[in-house]
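Title: Comparing notes on inverse folding

I've been comparing how different people in this forum approach sequence design from structure. To keep things fair, I'm posting one structure and asking everyone to reply with a full sequence. Here's the target:
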């Protein structure tokens, strides 16, 4: 990685105090020889003074926010420790009814589809079943799936990133029929006014991710970072992470810079890497890329940087990460990731339903976070993994099903 260039002081700002008298070429040979020696010595003095001047300038212009850098390293040290406990801690001290039927409406992409089996495994501990309904993610298909679940006697519907406006009628129909509605990763506020029982991985709960990524960038660069945050503004849930990343960069490094690049939905899986490379070419000082969604934005990006001759200059950090992103991490093409804890999302949603049906208070908690690097990544990253290795055992203990 090449650090950003810093201006040096001009040679003219350092003036030698020693004067050199140039002698005439018609003087005696001994005088001409003495003159040549004096001139040579003066030239050396000038070079030494110029060098000293340059050294002084380097020290001044490359100054680092030491306090901020120290704080960034402390945050990274904390974030890099793998969590060992789940975020909910109160045992359910009343009987949890069995025989419940849950419908999980998949949003149509791989990230949603992989949640079905995890939800089913968690629910099985409580004697519940999960019916997984695949959709293409369009509002019409999702609305139809929710209505079908209500008609078929489901006790609860789980839908990721539920938009309370797009599905207001279906949520109201579910409430009227006594069907609980649970979501994750949504901007909706849980409560009677929204008709949503529970929402986890909310915008505010995810906010620390941005701070972790900023601390990593500042720490890894030694306080000399020029970063760009690559966002997908169509996913409004991501806005908070972008805000905390920008705030974190300013907090940890007063001299670092942060730019923003928005990638449209139509570019995902297509020309997103080319757009990022184009931005880097027009902003040559940028040496760090922070991805709001590593899965969607990071696929093919390391290869694109290499092809553009930027792989040795620009480092990548990001939120989330699929199997390819982790392969790139292990190969050194990605500096660090804060992975999505799909297991936490799913077990927390099942836990909320268990508390509701057992008649005990819900715990509005979010997932844990972990800053993963090449030397700390789990051995098997080909599929989703729980950040807390014994997530299943810890939840079943709370449920009295160990």
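Reply #1:
Here's my take.
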């Amino acid at each position: 990685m090449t650090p950003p260039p810093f201006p040096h002081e001009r040679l003219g700002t350092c003036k030698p105090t020693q004067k050199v008298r140039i002698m005439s070429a018609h003087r005696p040979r001994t005088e001409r020889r003495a003159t040549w020696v004096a001139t040579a010595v003066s030239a050396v003095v000038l070079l030494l003074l110029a060098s000293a001047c340059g050294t002084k300038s380097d020290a001044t212009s490359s100054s680092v926010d030491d306090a901020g850098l120290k704080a960034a390293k402390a945050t990274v040290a904390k974030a890099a420790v793998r969590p060992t406990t789940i975020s909910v801690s109160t045992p359910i001290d009343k009987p949890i009814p069995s025989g419940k039927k849950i419908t999980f409406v998949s949003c149509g992409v791989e990230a949603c589809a992989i949640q079905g089996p995890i939800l089913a495994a968690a629910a099985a501990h409580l004697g519940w079943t999960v019916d997984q309904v695949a959709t293409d993610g369009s509002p019409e298909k999702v609305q139809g799936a929710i209505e079908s679940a209500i008609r078929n006697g489901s006790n609860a519907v789980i839908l990721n990133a539920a938009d309370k406006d797009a599905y207001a009628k279906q949520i109201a129909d579910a409430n009227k029929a006594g069907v609980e509605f649970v979501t994750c990763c949504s901007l909706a506020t849980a409560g009677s006014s929204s008709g949503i029982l529970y929402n986890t991985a909310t915008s505010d709960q995810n906010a620390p991710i941005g701070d972790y990524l900023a601390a990593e960038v500042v720490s890894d660069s030694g306080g000399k970072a020029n970063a760009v945050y690559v966002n997908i503004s169509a996913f409004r849930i991501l806005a908070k992470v972008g805000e905390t990343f920008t705030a974190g960069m300013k907090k940890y490094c007063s001299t670092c810079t942060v730019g923003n690049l928005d990638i449209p939905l139509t570019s995902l899986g297509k020309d997103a890497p080319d757009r990022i490379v184009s931005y880097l070419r027009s902003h040559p000082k940028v040496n760090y890329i922070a991805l709001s969604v590593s899965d969607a934005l990071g696929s093919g990006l390391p290869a694109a940087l290499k092809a553009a001759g930027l792989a040795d200059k620009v480092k990548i950090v990001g939120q989330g990460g699929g199997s390819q992103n982790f392969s790139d991490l292990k190969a050194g093409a990605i500096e660090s990731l804060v992975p999505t804890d799909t297991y936490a999302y799913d077990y927390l949603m099942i836990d909320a339903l268990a508390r509701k049906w057992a008649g005990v208070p819900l715990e509005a908690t979010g997932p844990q976070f972990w800053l993963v690097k090449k030397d700390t990544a789990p051995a098997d990253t080909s599929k989703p993994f729980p950040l807390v290795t014994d997530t299943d055992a810890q939840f079943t203990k709370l449920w009295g099903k160990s």
